[in-house]
Amino acid sequence: MGTKEAEAELQLQGQADIWKYMFSFADTMAVKCAVELRIPDIINMHVEPITLSQIVAGIPDAHSPDISYLARIMRLLVRRKIFAAHQTSEGGETKYGLTHSSRWLLHDSKMTLAPMLIMEDHPCLMAPWHCFGQCVKEGGIAFEKAHGRMIWDYASVNPEFNKLFNDGMACTSKIVMNTFVSEYKDGLGSVASLVDVGGGTGTAIAEIVKSNPHIKGINFDLPHVVSTAPIYDGVTHVGAIPKETGKVIIVDVVLQPEGNAIFDDTGIAFDLLMIAHVSGGKERTELEWKKVLEEGGFPRYNIIKIPALPSIIEAFPK
Ligand SMILES: C[S@@+](CC[C@H](N)C(=O)[O-])C[C@H]1O[C@@H](n2cnc3c(N)ncnc32)[C@H](O)[C@@H]1O
């Protein structure tokens, strides 16, 4: 290929990339629609792949459904491997089944990302993403620019948002803790009491205590969050870290900006999420964690990689 043709090809690819990024949100909205309509649950209930009419028949309150819209949304979702399309016979109706991705979107499953997806893609939490330019130009907090107050204040006066947020966090915690308790057995053996700082409604500490009944669990969060938290055996509130024997166990992303592991891209997106939703929050590279921990009086640390988005960071006081 000559230089001119190669340049033209690169230009065309560049244009195609921009079209793709311009409409990346279409994937998000299509998945959100499927979760809102509980399509994964409807398919799961039937056990076997089902037709569009069967899907529509299972959608609650669909009084005058438009199946052609659903067909077009499903076409994209099949392309993205969220659902699998099965052609039963030549010219026969397509049937839709679950995939490894949509199994994570079942509402009534112990391990689900559905509440997190509904939360993150809610207009209220999407609005701050539109304020990034403003943040770069003048600093400040994206959520506050979009909603006039910080996220935790907003949640404290808006019970519906408080529930949306806490439910999203709780389902994510359950997934991460499932991996955490099996991958960090040794680290938990010697722990007598454990404080989850900013532990939300206590899902994480409850999961830890359930499989480690020797641990006294303490869930620490804001009053409007704790007041809606379920009661868990072995979990109470407030605590402190003993100087000599204590450690801080952090379960958070360790960014690998150049990395190619399966969660590395999502880690970078989570860092932007921190700009969008919280004040001063960020995801950190190992070097940044080291600095924060040293400044906080925890000069020794281990990073334990687990098969999950976050890693385990054990930090020990001087
Ligand atoms: C990103 S959420 C994490 C929730 C939980 N750790 C989880 O992973 O599911 C951050 C939590 O910090 C809590 N929080 C924010 N500021 C706080 C403060 N000053 N004191 C205690 N908790 C706080 C929020 O209410 C929220 O539940």
Automatic annotation (TrEMBL):
One of its GO terms (molecular function) is protein dimerization activity. Gene3D superfamilies: Vaccinia Virus protein VP39, Winged helix-like DNA-binding domain superfamily/Winged helix DNA-binding domain. PANTHER family: O-METHYLTRANSFERASE. One of its GO terms (biological process) is methylation. The keyword Protease does not apply. Residues 129-232, 241-298 form the O-methyltransferase C-terminal domain. Keywords: Methyltransferase, S-adenosyl-L-methionine, Transferase. Residues 19-107 form the O-methyltransferase dimerisation domain. InterPro entries: COMT-like, COMT_C, COMT_dimerisation, SAM-dependent_MTases_sf, WH-like_DNA-bd_sf, WH_DNA-bd_sf. It holds the Pfam family Dimerisation. This is Xanthohumol 4-o-methyltransferase. It comes from the Eukaryota.
